[in-house]
């Protein structure tokens, strides 16, 4: 699995943790080990340009997802297929604002947004109430498993 994380901002971001998280989520979702994912962190100006261009919305946003091969998690008994998952674009400045409002760290917010972006790449959405329940429930579950896995790894070292 190829996961490339590129921080194009001056923000202090643990890109290894984002890469580890993305790998963890993709493995849990049973995505083919030869799938490719790119995560790019940009400043508010660049994010605003993308937000206007692709969503016709003003101002910077927290995360945008750009799917490529429309990979989906395989059904039970189905084999995963390789391909380009796509790109996730994160804005650490917007994440920091949201983190303050939510009462947690910017790192935790970036983890949430990375997971959220991956789920969008995998076809999940939250436009309808039932879709929102499914996506946000899965997001919460994956983040909880990630934290447990990460804590266990830290204790072992």
From TrEMBL:
Q: Name one GO cellular component term.
A: cytoplasm
Q: Which InterPro entries match?
A: MetalPrtase_cat_dom_sf_prd, YbeY, YbeY_CS
According to the UniProt record, what class of enzyme is this? hydrolase
Q: Which residues bind Zn(2+)?
A: 116, 120, 126
Recite the UniProt keywords alphabetically.
Cytoplasm, Endonuclease, Hydrolase, Metal-binding, Nuclease, Ribosome biogenesis, rRNA processing, Zinc
For this protein, the record's PROSITE patterns field holds: UPF0054
EC number of this enzyme: 3.1.-.-
Transmembrane regions = none
* Cofactor binding, per record: Binds 1 zinc ion.
Cofactor(s) for this protein? Zn(2+)
Q: Which GO terms describe its biological process?
A: rRNA processing
Mention one GO molecular function. Answer: RNA endonuclease activity
Query: Where does it localize?
Result: Cytoplasm
Q: Which PANTHER family match?
A: ENDORIBONUCLEASE YBEY, CHLOROPLASTIC (PTHR46986:SF1)
Q: Which HAMAP family match?
A: Endoribonucl_YbeY
Role, per record:
Single strand-specific metallo-endoribonuclease involved in late-stage 70S ribosome quality control and in maturation of the 3' terminus of the 16S rRNA.
Q: What is stated as this protein's family in its record?
A: Belongs to the endoribonuclease YbeY family.
NCBIfam families annotated for this entry?
Answer: rRNA maturation RNase YbeY
Protein name listed in UniProt:
Endoribonuclease YbeY
Q: Which organism is it from?
A: Phytoactinopolyspora halophila
| Taxonomic classification | Bacteria, Bacillati, Actinomycetota, Actinomycetes, Jiangellales
The UniProt gene name for this protein comes to ybeY
């Amino acid at each position: 699995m190829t996961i490339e994380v590129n921080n194009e901002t001056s923000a202090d971001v643990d890109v290894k943790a984002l890469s580890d998280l993305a790998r963890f989520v993709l493995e849990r979702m049973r995505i083919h080990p030869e799938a490719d994912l790119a995560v790019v962190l940009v400043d508010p100006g660049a994010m605003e340009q993308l937000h206007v261009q692709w969503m016709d919305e003003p101002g910077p946003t927290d995360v945008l997802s750009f799917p490529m091969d429309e990979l989906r998690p395989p059904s039970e008994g189905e084999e995963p297929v390789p391909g380009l998952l796509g790109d996730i674009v994160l804005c650490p400045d917007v994440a920091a604002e949201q983190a303050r409002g939510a009462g947690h760290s910017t790192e935790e917010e970036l983890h949430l947004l990375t997971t959220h972006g991956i789920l969008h790449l995998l076809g999940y959405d939250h436009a309808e109430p039932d879709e929102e329940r499914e996506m946000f429930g899965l997001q919460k579950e994956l983040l909880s498993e990630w934290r447990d896995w990460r804590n266990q790894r830290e204790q072992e070292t």
